[in-house]
Design goal:
This protein is an alpha+beta fold and 615 residues long. The protein is built from twelve helices and 18 strands. α8 packs antiparallel against α9, α8 crosses α10 and α11 runs antiparallel to α12. The protein is rod-shaped, with a radius of gyration of 81 Å.
C-alpha cells in the first residue's frame, strides 16, 4: 500500500515538475519566437517603410518644383500687379485650369500678398477659391517668407484632403504673392492599401493625415495636449475633424520595437501592432508602418503547440520507458523469486526423494530379508507339514497295528485250520471239500495281501498330486483299513453316496487318510454308546461335492469348539491321541480347495467338507 502510494506521489511530483519545466520552456520559447518574429517583422517593415517613403518622396518630388515653375510665369506677376484686370484674370484662370488638369493636381491658384486668391483653376466650379483669403495657412506664410511652402490640410472650401505646395511670385526681389498647388492624397493611400501592414503619415503633432486605413484618418497617434488641440483647431488645418487618439501611449520592447494597442473594427477588438517610424525632413512628415503582430501570436501559438506536444510526447515516452523498465525489473524480480522458490522446492523435493529412497531402500532390504525369511519358514513349514503328515500316518498305523495284528492273526489261524482241513479231506479223498478249503485259503491270502497294499499306500510319503478321484473308490479304500475296528466295535456304518458315480478333484491317498481320520475319531467318540452309528455321506451340490462323517457320540463340548483344529489339542488319554488328526486332515482338505467344518447337531458330531465336483 505504501509502495503504491509513494509511486502515485512520485508520479504527481514528476508531473508537476514536468508542468513547471514545460511552462518555463514554453515561456522562453514564446519570448524567443516573439522576439525573433518581431525582429524579422521589423526588418521587413523597415524595407517596406523605406519603399513607401521613396514612393511618397517620388510623388512629392513630382509636384514640388511645379509652383516654382509657375511662379516665374509673367502672367502671374502681371495678374498680381493688376488684379482688377478682369480679362487677364479670366485668361489666367483658364491657364491655371489647364495646368491643373495636365499636371493632375487638385487645385492650382494664385494668392496676392494678403492671402486673397485672385485666380484659381476651379474658377468655374461651385465653390471657387477666388476671392477667398487663405492667409492663415502656413504654406502661404512660408511662401511669403520666400520659401517653398508645404502643408497638409483638409480643404476648408473643398473639404478635400490635400497637400499644398506654395511658391512666392516675385517681381525683382519683391514678393507679390504666392502660387499654390494642391495635390490629391487619396491616390497615395489607395495604391498602398489592402496590405497586411498599414502605412500612415502624421504631422509633427502626431495627427494622422495619410493612412491606408480610412478609420484612422485624423486621429492622433497618442493623446494630444489641450494647447496642441487648441492650436490645431485655430489653424483650421483639419477643419472640424475630432482628433481622437488612435491608441494610448505605446510601449517599447527591448528598447527598439514600439508596440501599440489599437481599437479595431469600430472598437470591438484590440489590435496589437508594431510601429516603425521614419521622418521625412523635406516634407516634415513622420511616416509610420504599423504591422499587425497577430501573425506573430499565431506563430508563437504554433511553436508552443509544437514544442508543448513534443515535450509532452517526450515526457510520455520517458514515463512509458520508465514504466517499462519498472515492469521489466518487477518481472525480473518475480522471475528470480519464482526461480528461487522453484530451486528451493527442487532442493526440498530432492532431499525428500533421497530421504524416501533411503527409507525405501531400507524397507526393500527389510522386505527382501522378510521374503527370504518367509521362504525359509515356508520351506521349513512344508517340511514340518510333510513330516507331521508322515508322523500322523505313523500314528494311524500304530492305531491300526492292533487291528491289523488281529486281522492278520485271524486269517492266519483260519488258513491254518483250512490247511489242516484240506489235508484231512485229501487224505480221505474228498477232493471237492479239499478244493473248497484251498479256495478259502486263497481268498484269505488275497485279503491279507489287500491289507498289505493299503498299509503300503498309507505309509508312503505322498507328493499329493491332485487328480480326478472316484469318491466310491476312496471310501472303499478307507473302509478296508477300518473294517477290523468297525467290526470289533460293532459300529453300524451307513454309507450314503448320491449319485453313485461322484468324482472329485483330490488325491486318492490323502483323501483316504482324511476319511480314515474322521471315521476313527467318530469311532472313538461313540465308544461306550449302546448303539454305535456312523453315517458316511457324499452328495452333489451344484459343482461341489459335500462329504460328511456323522456319528451319534457326545459331540464336541462348547468350550473345545475353537480348539479342536489346533495342533496337539486332544481330549483323549495320553497314548490314545496325538491331537494332530483334525489339524492334518484340515490341511489336506485345504490343499484340495476345501475346509473341514464342525456342524453341530442335536446328537453327535458332524464333520463335513466340500470338494470340486468333476462332472
Ligand atoms: P486326537 O484324536 O488324537 O485327540 P484329533 O485332532 O483327531 O486328535 O481330535 C482332537 C479332539 O477333537 C479330540 O481329542 C476330541 O476331543 C475331539 N473330537 C474329534 N472328533 C470327535 C468326534 N467325532 N466326537 C467328539 N469329539 C471329537
Amino acid at each position: 500500500m505504501t509502495i503504491v502510494f509513494s509511486r502515485k506521489k512520485k508520479g504527481i511530483i514528476s508531473f508537476l515538475f514536468f508542468v513547471i519545466i514545460l511552462v518555463q520552456v514554453l515561456n522562453t520559447v514564446s519570448v524567443w519566437t516573439y522576439r525573433r518574429g518581431l525582429v524579422e517583422l521589423s526588418d521587413k517593415g523597415n524595407v517596406r517603410l523605406e519603399l513607401y517613403i521613396n514612393y511618397l518622396q517620388g510623388i512629392l518630388g513630382k509636384y514640388e518644383s511645379l509652383p516654382e515653375l509657375l511662379a516665374i510665369d509673367n502672367n502671374l506677376v502681371r495678374a498680381l500687379l493688376s488684379p482688377h484686370e478682369k480679362k487677364r484674370i479670366e485668361i489666367l484662370n483658364r491657364y491655371l485650369e489647364t495646368i491643373n488638369r495636365v499636371s493632375d493636381t487638385l487645385d492650382t491658384y494664385l494668392m496676392n500678398k494678403d492671402g486673397l486668391t485672385i485666380a484659381a483653376s476651379n474658377w468655374n466650379e461651385k465653390h471657387p477659391f477666388i476671392g477667398r483669403n487663405f492667409s492663415y495657412r502656413p504654406y502661404f506664410k512660408q511662401a511669403m517668407k520666400g520659401k517653398l511652402g508645404r502643408y497638409f490640410a483638409l480643404g476648408t472650401a473643398s473639404s478635400k484632403r490635400g497637400y499644398y505646395f506654395a511658391y512666392p511670385v516675385r517681381k525683382s526681389d519683391e514678393i507679390l504673392g504666392a502660387v499654390v498647388i494642391k495635390i490629391n492624397i487619396d491616390s497615395v493611400e489607395q495604391s498602398w492599401a489592402n496590405r497586411d501592414e498599414n502605412f500612415l503619415v502624421s504631422d509633427p503633432d502626431g495627427v494622422i493625415f495619410i493612412t491606408t486605413n480610412p478609420e484612422w484618418r485624423f486621429k492622433s497617434l497618442k493623446p494630444l495636449e489641450e494647447d496642441v488641440l487648441y492650436r490645431i483647431e485655430e489653424s483650421r488645418r483639419y477643419s472640424d475633424a475630432i482628433l481622437e487618439p488612435l491608441s494610448e501611449e505605446g510601449r517599447t520592447l527591448w528598447g527598439k520595437v514600439e508596440i501599440l494597442n489599437i481599437a479595431d473594427e469600430g472598437g470591438k477588438s484590440i489590435k496589437r501592432v508594431m510601429k516603425q517610424s521614419q521622418f521625412m525632413p523635406q516634407a516634415g512628415w513622420n511616416v509610420h508602418i504599423l504591422t499587425d503582430t497577430r501573425v506573430l501570436r499565431e506563430k508563437v501559438l504554433m511553436v508552443n503547440i509544437m514544442v508543448g506536444t513534443g515535450l509532452s510526447l517526450a515526457y510520455i515516452l520517458v514515463l512509458l520507458l520508465l514504466q517499462r523498465n519498472h515492469r521489466l525489473a518487477q518481472l525480473h524480480r518475480v522471475e528470480e523469486e519464482a526461480k528461487r522458490a522453484l530451486q528451493d522446492a527442487n532442493e526440498q523435493l530432492e532431499s525428500r526423494v533421497s530421504d524416501r529412497t533411503q527409507k525405501l531402500t531400507a524397507a526393500n532390504k527389510m522386505l527382501r530379508k522378510e521374503v527370504l525369511d518367509r521362504k525359509q519358514t515356508e520351506i521349513k513349514l512344508k517340511r514340518t507339514r510333510k513330516e507331521l503328515i508322515h508322523a500322523a500316518k505313523l500314528a494311524v498305523l500304530g492305531q491300526m497295528s492292533a487291528g491289523i495284528n488281529h486281522e492278520l492273526n485271524q486269517p492266519l489261524a483260519a488258513i491254518r485250520s483250512y490247511t489242516d482241513n484240506g489235508k484231512q479231506f485229501l487224505q480221505k479223498g474228498r477232493l471237492e471239500d479239499a478244493m473248497w478249503n484251498l479256495e478259502q485259503i486263497g481268498e484269505l491270502t488275497e485279503r491279507m495281501a489287500q491289507i498289505g497294499v493299503q498299509l503300503k499306500l498309507f505309509s508312503r510319503k505322498s507328493s499329493g498330486q491332485i487328480v480326478v478321484v472316484p469318491l466310491h473308490g476312496v471310501i472303499d479304500g478307507a473302509l478296508e483299513i477300518l473294517k477290523p475296528s468297525l467290526k470289533k466295535e460293532a459300529v453300524e456304518l451307513t454309507i450314503d453316496i448320491k449319485p453313485d458315480n461322484l468324482e472329485v478333484r483330490a488325491n486318492h491317498v490323502l483323501l483316504q487318510q482324511v476319511l480314515v481320520n474322521l471315521v476313527s475319531n467318530a469311532m472313538q467318540a461313540i465308544e461306550g454308546q449302546q448303539s454305535k452309528k456312523i453315517l458316511l455321506e457324499g452328495h452333489a451340490l451344484e459343482d461341489k461335492v459335500v462329504i460328511a462323517v456323522h456319528d451319534n457320540g457326545p459331540g464336541v463340548s462348547a468350550e473345545h469348539l475353537h480348539d479342536i483344529f489346533e495342533p496337539f489339542f486332544t481330549t483323549k488319554k495320553s497314548g490314545h491321541g496325538l491331537g494332530l488328526g483334525l489339524t492334518i486332515s484340515d490341511r489336506i482338505v485345504r490343499g484340495f480347495g476345501g475346509q473341514i467344518i464342525l456342524a453341530q447337531y442335536k446328537e453327535g458330531a458332524r464333520f463335513e467338507f466340500t470338494l470340486d465336483r468333476i462332472v
